């Protein structure tokens, strides 16, 4: 049985209604490949001067890039390889089994997602499949050791970034719990169709911090200084990016940057992302004044995102909460 989701068959009307022309070609085909700012977390265990330099570099990257990568993060290569092996095993299940993930894979119903059900054009279609798994579902799986360690890294980074804004806060420990955070396993099948198709369409993340482990196929692209750049894969690093909630909480000091994944014509790509999210009732308000945004709950934010995607086909995000 075929493990691939029926992307082409399901979205065939979108392809049939799209004229193949230079205007339909993906605008991200030829972009510069660059290394992200790299932060060595082992420096946090050195003398106070080196420790502070490390924190300052992290805050600068979060401000200027919205993205950075960390090495010596405490998650062994052996554990990362086991995670990939488990991902391959899960995604190579027959498609029908993945659709019944509660029975076959011990994930809660609704974890498996593929394509873009709301897409009305090729530009809105994501050529990918994923398991979006609450951390509380992972406690009995072989992914649990990775999930525990990556959650700890996320809390550490959030606390450092808050500290560099002058706030030694327990906000993230109190608001972002295993019951509110997620691990997303991604697979991007080969996409041989010569149209403007993304693996994941351009977007910003709706959390505080995302930690990404990507393979060597590459494909992650982001906006820097008004231009799209391609992120050079680094097998030793985890990629960190700032989400919308941290941009709002930091009063626009840290930036949630638009990014996407582009498809590959012959290779499949795997990645795993951890999302540091609060409870729905958590109120997000600026840590300084005057505030750029009106305060809002995470529930209100996500409802606006869902409404906009249904109405327009894309997320509007933080501009919805400008005074």
Automatic annotation (TrEMBL):
Which Gene3D superfamilies does the record cross-reference, listed alphabetically? B-lactam Antibiotic, Isopenicillin N Synthase, Chain
Query: What PROSITE patterns does the record tag this protein with?
Result: FE2OG_OXY
Query: Which InterPro entries does the record match to this protein?
Result: DIOX_N, IPNS-like_FE2OG_OXY, IPNS-like_sf, Iron_ascorbate_oxido_reductase, Oxoglu/Fe-dep_dioxygenase_dom
Q: Where is the Fe2OG dioxygenase domain?
A: 179-278
GO MF annotation: an example: metal ion binding
**Entry keywords, A to Z:** Iron, Metal-binding, Oxidoreductase
One Pfam family name is 2OG-FeII_Oxy
| Protein's UniProt keywords contain Oxidoreductase | yes
Keyword GTP-binding assigned to the entry: answer is no
Q: Which family does it belong to?
A: Belongs to the iron/ascorbate-dependent oxidoreductase family.
Q: Which PANTHER family match?
A: 2-OXOGLUTARATE (2OG) AND FE(II)-DEPENDENT OXYGENASE SUPERFAMILY PROTEIN-RELATED
Please identify the protein, giving its name as recorded: Gibberellin 2-beta-dioxygenase 8
């Amino acid at each position: 049985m075929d493990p691939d989701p029926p992307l082409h068959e399901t979205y065939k009307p979108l392809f049939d209604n799209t004229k193949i022309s230079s205007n339909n070609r993906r605008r991200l085909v030829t972009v510069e490949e660059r290394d992200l700012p790299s932060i060595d977390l082992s420096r946090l265990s050195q003398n106070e001067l080196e420790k502070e330099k490390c924190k300052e570099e992290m805050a600068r990257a979060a401000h200027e890039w919205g993205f950075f990568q960390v090495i010596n993060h405490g998650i062994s290569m052996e554990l990362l390889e086991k995670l990939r092996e488990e991902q391959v095993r899960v995604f190579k299940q027959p498609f029908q089994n993945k659709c019944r993930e509660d029975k076959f894979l011990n994930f809660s119903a609704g974890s498996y997602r593929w394509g873009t059900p709301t897409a009305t054009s090729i530009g809105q279609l994501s050529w990918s499949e994923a398991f979006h798994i609450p951390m509380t579902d992972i406690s009995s799986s072989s992914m649990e050791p990775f999930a525990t360690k990556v959650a700890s890294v996320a809390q550490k980074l959030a606390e450092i970034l808050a500290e560099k804004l002058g706030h030694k806060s327990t906000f993230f420990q109190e608001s972002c719990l295993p019951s509110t955070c997620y691990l997303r396993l991604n697979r991007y099948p080969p996409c041989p169709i010569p149209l403007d198709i993304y693996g994941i369409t351009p977007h910003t993340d709706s959390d505080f911090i995302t930690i990404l482990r990507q393979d060597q196929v590459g494909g992650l692209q982001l906006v820097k200084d008004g231009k799209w750049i391609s992120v050079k894969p680094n097998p030793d690093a985890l990629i960190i990016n700032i989400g919308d909630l941290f941009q709002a909480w930091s009063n626009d000091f840290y930036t949630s940057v638009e990014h996407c994944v582009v498809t590959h014509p012959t290779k499949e790509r795997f990645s795993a992302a951890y999302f540091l999210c609060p409870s729905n009732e958590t109120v997000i308000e600026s840590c300084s004044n005057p505030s750029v945004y009106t305060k809002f709950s995470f529930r209100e934010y996500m409802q606006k995102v869902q409404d906009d995607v249904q109405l327009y086909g894309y997320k509007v995000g933080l501009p919805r909460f400008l005074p």
